Amino acid sequence: MANIIYHPADSRGSADHGWLKAKHTFSFASYYNPERIHFGMLRVLNDDLIAAGVGFPTHPHDNMEIITIPLKGAIAHKDSMGNSSVIHKGEIQVMSAGTGIQHSEYNFSDSESLQLLQIWIFPNKKNVEPRYQQLLVNQEVTNQLHQILSPHPEDDGVWIHQDAWFHIGKFNTPHTIDYTIKKEGNGVYVFVIDGSVRIENQELSERDGLGISKTNQFSIEILNEKTEILLMEIPMN
User: Fold this and answer.
1) Alpha carbons 175 and 197: distance in angstroms, whole number
2) How far apart are alpha carbons 237 and 203 in whole angstroms?
3) Would 12-136 and 145-235 be classified into the same CATH topology?
4) How far apart are CA 180 and CA 158, in angstroms?
């Protein structure tokens, strides 16, 4: 029988810094919940709203796989590897922090807010050479799961140093889809960006999350004709 962990949107930690309004699925910064440290190798899932023209000044990271997905607006990024870029809604960015990097992230717009998901995954290799990757996600793929991240450079999407697979699903009609675990022992964390779904008799609405493990396959019932979900398959230990 599958193991299910349900995280309603309003149960997340929150922080309001004025310029930054953040929701934390797992313990982060001043939010600490001993029952919400991580889900397998998924350590951070932050849902950030950043005011126009501001952001995070230069700060360090190491030995973490960091994935950023803009939901609204664009991010201006600079890092110690020499990368300077803008990541727009519809793109995905990944950094393998490895031996150590420094970077800054700012709202590219001086007039509109920026909304993004930032996700941290524990790597399966420590002290790797830092790397950066940015990719446009095919926006025309609908009513199915579209792979946007994997462990393999030759696969669809970006890649990271972990046996993880991410899929985005954008749906405009209610129906049911199946997901099969790609590596035995992995679990999946499902995050509802918009709309509503049902998994294992648990209904999820906007910004709800659900972790499922100890299963090889499960079904996702799309309940709303405008639904977007992010599936993150990761090792559980």
Assistant:
1) 10
2) 27
3) yes
4) 20
135 contacts 158 by C-beta, under 8 angstroms: yes
- Topology (CATH level 3) of domain 12-136: Jelly Rolls (2.60.120)
Distance from C-alpha of 11 to C-alpha of 164, rounded to nearest angstrom: 26
User: 3-class DSSP state for residue 120?
Assistant: strand
Taking the C-alpha atoms of residue 137 and residue 119, their distance in angstroms, rounded to an integer, is: 17
Which residues have a Cβ under 8 Å from the Cβ of 154 and sit 6 or more positions away?
none
- In terms of Cα–Cα distance, which of 30, 71, 28, 66 is closest to 50? 71
Percent of the chain with pLDDT over 70: 100
CATH code: domain 145-235 is 2.60.120.10
Confidence of residue 139 (pLDDT cuts 50, 70, 90): confident
Q: Residue 67 to residues 1, 10, 40, 84, 132: CA-CA distances in angstroms?
A: 31, 23, 16, 16, 10
Domain boundaries, the chain: 12-136, 145-235
- 161-177 confidence digits (pLDDT tens): 999 999 999 999 999 99
The dihedral region occupied by 99, where left means phi > 0, alpha psi between -120 and 50, and beta the remainder, is alpha
Output the CA–CA distances (angstroms, integers) from residue 10 to 87, 202, 209, in the order listed: 28, 16, 11
Q: What is the pLDDT of residues 179-209, one digit of tens each?
A: 999 999 999 999 999 999 999 999 999 999 9
Of 93, 106, 113, the closest CA to residue 57 belongs to: 106
Q: Which of 232, 231, 225 is nearest to 196 (CA)?
A: 225
